[in-house]
Amino acid sequence: MKTQTSETFTVRVDATTKERLEKLAESTGRSRSFLASEAITQFLDANEWQVEGIRAAIRAVDAGEAIPHEDVRKWVESWDTADETPAP
After folding, report:
1. Is the separation of the CB atoms in 52 and 46 below 8 Å?
2. pTM score, two decimals?
3. Can you tell me the distance from the alpha carbon of 34 to that of 36, in angstroms, rounded to the nearest whole number?
4. How far is 46 from 48, CA to CA, in rounded Å?
5. pLDDT, tens digit (0-9, with 9 covering 90-100), for 33-51
């Protein structure tokens, strides 16, 4: 298994956030650095995925691969009716 090296950088937080982090670190037996690193990794995972999804959608629209809003609206309005239409 390959071990990754870590690097240090400084993050400024307000006093309340620092206190919360210290309490959580103490109660979990983890270091503040470990918890902050985990939180940053999770934030990046969520946001990188979301930004890439937005970029992919923009590329699809630019390529003319989008479904017109009116078609989607009519489809959604048909849900749970006797005349429910298939997805556009």
Report:
1. no
2. 0.64
3. 6
4. 6
5. 999 999 999 999 999 999 9
Find where tokens 């989607």 sit: 72
What integer pLDDT is reported at residue 42 of this predicted model?
97
Length of the chain: 88
- Could you tell me where the beta strands, DSSP code E, fall in the chain? none
Distance CA 83, CA 62 (A): 32
Task: Quote the tokens at residue 6.
Answer: 């870590």
In angstroms, how far is CA 71 from the centroid of its own chain? 28
**CA neighbours closer than 13 Å in the CB half-sphere of residue 83:** 4
What is the residue whose two structure tokens read 């956030």? Answer: 17
Please identify every stretch of the chain with a pLDDT value under 50, giving residue numbers as ranges: none
